[in-house]
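stuck on this chain:
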Amino acid sequence: MKAFTKILKKTGFDSLQPVQKIEFLTRIKESANMRGRLIETFLVEVLKQDADPIVRHEAAFVIAHVRACKRMIGSLALHALCISAEKDQSLIVRHEALEALGEFPEPQALKTIVKFITSRNNDLRATARISLAKIQQT
């Protein structure tokens, strides 16, 4: 992943303004040609490392969309979303990561989602219920 971080810096993504980063992420979401491990790794690194919580939120959203469109397997993304849902300092990132986990009907996602079913935070609790219902429908 350190090599990929260097690529992010070398390509200039790190130096973009947040609105430009979000536009870039939106292009990934909308492009059917952007798929596979490289895109997954890129999105995971943005989710884990970007300084702006809105950009991290958008990365989680795009991960969910790309996964729903079957454009990634998602093993790296699943792990990163679980960590973000549990530990990100921003509530909005935690919410979006938790919602994105609804696209991963796998034990690791379920374990994380279930932790929030009884959360004291109303938003996280509601999001966990939505994600759990989504998985149960698959």
User: Anything to note?
Assistant: Helices lie at 2-11, 18-30, 37-49, 53-68, 75-87, 91-100, 107-115, 122-137.
